[in-house]
Design brief:
The chain is mainly alpha-helical. It has one domain. It contains eight helices and no strands. The longest helix is centred in the C-terminal third of the chain and has 33 residues.
């Protein structure tokens, strides 16, 4: 038995002995992504209030990095086509199960990308996201949907795509946001007042 499977069994055994946690963990495993959406909005709000163009570029990139990470992870999962533990193992506690590929975990990719993106915006917000991400990946194993390796790989992939992709995306996003500051959409980008034109000399 591999270490990955052994750890899965240990967590699943913990799940078996904590039935009172099932509704809480299952709910978070399924709908906890809403929390990460809220954290992305908080990152945008912080960047807007700071009126820091670099921070706003990072705040805009964070959800785009998430989409990029998901676009990369889907073909990987299809190619690896690892059977989920809930479909491969017998006599285990299963609180949720799908039939698509298990490696990498979509949820782990998402929370890894969000946390890395928020790290570029605000470190305290990223710390909150990191703690929530740890709970999410544990929950995905706890409910029987993934092996530990699935969620660890997902976290790493999501974070790597978000951080690496930010570098080439930054100039284009910076240009786009600079352009938008000259439009009515300026209020979405910065809380600082629009500069008043200097009066013309008579």
């Amino acid at each position: 038995m591999s270490l990955d499977t052994r750890i899965f069994y240990d967590i699943n055994d913990f799940s078996r002995h904590t039935p009172w946690l099932h509704p809480i963990v299952s709910g978070y495993a399924a709908y906890g992504v809403v929390l990460f959406a809220a954290l992305l909005l908080a990152g945008w709000w912080i960047a807007r209030a700071a009126a820091d163009p670099r921070r706003m570029v990072a705040a805009v990139w964070a959800p785009l990095g998430l989409l990029a990470a998901m676009a990369i992870s889907q073909p990987i999962a299809a190619a690896v086509d690892r059977t989920r533990p809930c479909n491969a193992l017998h006599d285990i506690v299963v609180l949720h199960c799908n039939t698509d590929g298990s490696l990498p975990s979509d949820h782990a990719v998402m929370v890894g990308a969000v946390t890395a993106g928020l790290w570029l915006v605000n470190r305290r917000l990223a710390l909150i996201s990191a703690l929530a991400a740890v709970v999410m990946v544990f929950a995905r194993v706890y409910i029987g949907a993934h092996y530990p390796l699935d969620v660890l790989a997902g976290l790493a992939l999501g974070a790597a795509v978000s951080l690496i992709g930010y570098l080439p995306a930054r100039p284009t996003l910076g240009w786009a946001l600079t352009f938008l500051t000259r439009t009515p959409l300026r209020v979405l980008i910065t809380a600082s007042p629009e500069p008043v034109p200097a009066p013309r000399a008579s």
